[in-house]
Each structure stands twice: as structure tokens, then as C-alpha cells.
Amino acid sequence: IIDDYLLSRQTVDISKIAENVKTKPEYFQEAVTALMSVNPAYINYTIDYINQKYGSIDNYLEKELKLTSGKKILLRKYLLYNQ
Asked: pTM for the whole thing?
């Protein structure tokens, strides 16, 4: 998951995103820019939180998002590189 998240740096054009939100309030611009900046700390924090609360990513997908095994397979296929 982390490696695939970091690959986003190659496809996310942060300057284009910043241009698209420049007419929005400053707090919105800052939030969008931060979220789209592909910061490893964000994904690490998220995974740590999910693991602490649910025990695993798989448990989170099942319990919180109500994903079936088939839907989890599709999610991995569409979101992860080389799946």
C-alpha cells in the first residue's frame, strides 16, 4: 500500500491542483494541497491508526466499509500497482 501511494508522486501534478483550487478559500487550498502532496507520514499514520483500531487493513475493509472478498479483490486490482 505504501509503495503504491508513493508512486502517486509520479502522476499527481500538485501545481495543477493548486491552480484548480486557487479561487477557493485559503483553508480549502491548504487542505487540498496537503492531502495531494503524497506525504509518507500521512499514509503511515493512517495505516497505524487502522491497525490499532481494527487490527488490520483487511478487518477495516470488512467491518467499516462492509466490503466483501470480491469487492476487496476489485479494489486491490484497481488501486494497487501490479495486482
From this structure: 0.64
